[in-house]
Amino acid sequence: MDETLGLIYLRVPTWSPFRLQFYCNGHSRLAHSLTTAGIDYAMADNAFIRIADWERAQQLADAFSPDTLHALLDRYAEQCCPILEVFGQSYHWSLMQVEYSTDLVFRSDTILKSLYEELSRQAIFSVKADQVANFLGKKITPQLAQELGSRFTTRIEGTCIKHHFGKVSVKMYDKFNRVLRLETTTNNVSFFKHHRKVEHRDGHDSREIAPLRKTIYSLIDLREILLGCNRRYLEYLSALDDFSAGNRNLHRLTSPQIVNGHSLKGFNFFDATQQALLRALQRPEFNIRGIRRADLAPFLRQISPASITRYLWRLRQFGLIKKVVHGYRYYLTRLGRSTIAAACRITEESIVPALAHATP
What is the superkingdom listed in this entry's lineage (predicted)? Predict the structure, then answer.
C-alpha cells in the first residue's frame, strides 16, 4: 500500500533479466490528492460518487506527472530488486497496459438504471465496425488485419458493452447505478499515432505523424488521445434515442403508490372498466371545457358516481390529470394525453388484430 498511489502491485521475478511489472490505479492517487487538498468526497469501490469541487478534482487528476511516477518506480525497483546493485544498471519503464476512464456521475440511481439499460440495448445493435474505428481515431482499410467487433457481457458486478479493435477497446458499464463509466483500454500504445519528433537511423530528426512511444513519458500525450476516444463514444451515445423516461413513467403508473398512508393500485390499461374511463377522458369536448364527474357519468354507466370520484382522485395522484384552481374541473396533463393515446393505439392496432386470428 503506497501512501500516494494507494493499492499497488509489483511483480518481481527471480530470474534474469528481472523484468518488473507495476500496476496502480489513478483513482486511488486522486483520492489521496483530494484528501491532501482538503476537498470532501465519497467513493464506491474505485468510483467517485460525490466530490465537493469537481473542477478542482479534474485539475488534480491532470496534474499527474511522469517524472514523479519515474522516481517512485525507481525507488520500488531499488527496494524490491537489490540485484540492480550488482549490475549497476537502472530500469527503463515502458507502458504495457493503460486504461483511461470518463465518469458521468448521477445524483439518483433510478435515473441511471433505466438510462443504462436503454443505452446498452441500443449500442449493442447500432454500433458497427466503422463506428468502432471512428471512436478510436482509426479508419478501416483493405489492409486491415486485426479483429474488430462488439461484445455484451454479464458478470456479477453487472453488464458491460465492449467494442474492440485489435488490442484496443472502448467500453461502457455502470458502477452501483450511480456512475456511468466510459473507458478506453490499450495493450499496445503504439496503436495510436501523433505528431512528434522522429529520430532516423542516419542521425537526422524530423517532426511527423508516428506511433506513440511506449515510454512512461508518453502518458501526457496518451491521456489526450484516450480522452478523445471517450468523448467520441460519448457523442455517439448522446445521439441515441433515450426512452428511459418512458420506462420510468410506465413503472410509476402501473405500480402501487402510497399516498397519505393509503395504498393506491397502479393502472391496468387492458382492464375494460379502466379503458372505458380513459377513452371518456380523451373525448375532444373535454379538452376545451375540462372534465367534471357529472360529465363522465353518461359515458361510464357501469361505474357508480362514488367510484368515478375515486378514479379521478387516483388519476390526479398519478399525475394523469390536474385540477383547476378554485374549481371542480380537471384537465389531462401531457403525461395523461400520451398515456391514453398509447394505450388505445396498442389495443386497437396490435392486440385486437393479433387476437382476431388466434384460435382457442
Answer: Bacteria
Q: Which residues contact 219 (CB under 8 A, 6 or more apart)?
A: 64, 66, 69, 95, 98
As a whole number of angstroms, the distance between CA 148 and CA 165 comes to 4
Same domain for 186 and 126: yes
CB 136 within 8 A of CB 266: no
Q: Do 220 and 117 fall within a single domain?
A: yes
Distances, alpha carbon 36 to alpha carbons 40, 47, 56, 74, in Å = 10, 18, 12, 24
CB 182 within 8 A of CB 102: yes
The one-letter amino acid at 104: L
Pick the more confident residue, 50 or 349: 50
Residues 203 and 129 in one domain: yes
Amino acid (1-letter code) at residue 94:
S
Structural domain for 315, as ranges: 245-356
E-strand ranges in 114-270 read: 148-154, 159-165, 168-175, 179-186, 193-199, 205-211, 257-259, 262-264
Higher local confidence (pLDDT), 114 or 225: 225
Residue 238 confidence (pLDDT): 85
Phi, psi of 164 (to 5 degrees): -120, 150
283 backbone dihedrals φ, ψ, rounded to 5°:
-60, 140
Amino acid at 54: W
Number of domains in the chain: 3
Which residues on neighbouring strands pair with residue 85, listed in sequence order?
none
CA–CA distance from 325 to each of 255, 288, 291, 333 (Å)? 28, 16, 13, 15
Q: What is the mean pLDDT of residues 330-342?
A: 87
> How sure is the predictor about 242, in pLDDT bands with cuts at 50, 70 and 90?
low
pLDDT at residue 40 in the model: 93
Which 8-state DSSP code applies to residue 189? G
DSSP, res 298: G
**What's the helix, strand, coil split of the chain in %, to 5?**
45, 25, 30
Instruction: Write down the pLDDT at residue 360.
Output: 63
| CA separation, residue 8 to residues 142, 181, 215 (Å) | 42, 22, 20
Say yes or no to pLDDT of 156 above 80.
no
Window from 11-15, 23-27, 62-66, 145-149 with minimum mean pLDDT: 145-149
